[in-house]
Amino acid sequence: MSGNTAWPPRYRAGVDHKGLPGGWRVRAPSAAYRRSPIERIWTLSDFSRRYLLRASAAAGAGAIVVPGLTAAGAPDIAAASTSGLLAAGDPAKGSSGCPPAKLTGHVVRPGDASYTDDRIDYDQLFSHYPLVIVFAQKTQDVVNALTWARQHNVALRVRSGRHALEGWSNIDNGIVIDVSQLKSVHIDTDARIATVGAGLTQLEAVTTLAKRDLAVTTGSEGSVGLVGATVGGGLGPLNRWLGMACDSLIGTEVVVPSGRDCAKVIHADLKDHSDLLWALRGAGNGNFGIVTQLTYKVHPLKRIAYVQATWDGLTDLHGIFDAWQRTVPFADNRLGSEVEIHKSQILLFAWLAEGTAAEARKMLAPILSIGTPDVKVQVGNWGPIFAGAQVPRSQEPANVKFFSQFAKKLFPKKAIDVIGYYMRNAPTEDSNYFVDAFGGAIKKEPRGGTAFVHRDAIFYGEIGAAWGTPSTTPGVCDPLTSTCQAWTAEFSQAMRSFVDGAYVNVPNVGMQEWETAYWGRRHFERLREIKAKYDPYNVFQYEQSIPPASR
Question: pTM to 2 decimals?
Answer without folding.
Answer: 0.85
